[in-house]
Design brief:
globular, Rossmann fold, 45% helix, 232 residues, 7 strands, alpha/beta, binds S-adenosylmethionine, 7-stranded mixed sheet
Length: 232
Amino acid sequence: MKKENINKIFQSIADKYDFMNDLMSFGLHRKWKRKFIDLIDLNLKNKNIILDLGCGTGDIISHINNKSKLNSNYLAYLVDPNIKMIQQGIKKIKKKNVLWVASYGEKLPFKDNKFDLVTMSFSLRNVENIKITLNEINRILKKNGQFLCLEFGKVKNLTIGSIYKIYSDNFIPELGKNITGNKEAYKYLVESIKRFPSQEEICKILKFRKFYNINYYNLNFGIAVIYSCRKK
Ligand SMILES: C[S@@+](CC[C@H](N)C(=O)[O-])C[C@H]1O[C@@H](n2cnc3c(N)ncnc32)[C@H](O)[C@@H]1O
């Protein structure tokens, strides 16, 4: 789907986005995000420069702020093409070391080798071009910088997979319609999860884009997955 159309979808649900996440995942996304943050592996003696791409309303930086390990010893750029999502985030997060930037992931307004860490949470699925975005992430990361990505995955367990399919095909679009008035946006969500490459395919793509130390961790049978790797 064209990035302008994806942008319109998020525009239409921005004010209910956080509430819907809790509802649809029964709060599970919070547990997944906590695990995601736990996998940050940085030299804590330095002041790290972080980029959260497809930051939405800034959930990842909220989790980082609540986690004592990083403290406030970082400078974070929160990047998203959607101004309405960013506006919701600005209401939530009031920190001097957090800078908001409106941009698509396919062309980032940063110089090469700038960041110690790039995170993406449920946003790689939404970019128009995954490979170009990963090239950009690789370009702006420092050598050995970490890329962490949280996304939906493929469930291999047949029983769980079929329950999950029934739930997402039927329940999620209806819930979206009732809460946000936009059933199409939540149909898009379900379709984008189906279209997104499998765990193995993402690892292959990362390998071809000059990342190393590539690992993935399935959460709740692979409904969600965390990818961790480093720039060569
Ligand atoms: C499902 S939300 C995830 C928000 C947040 N990271 C979280 O975990 O709650 C996906 C986000 O990706 C953003 N997005 C869509 N297209 C994008 C692109 N081409 N580059 C970067 N972000 C994009 C959307 O605007 C939206 O805020």
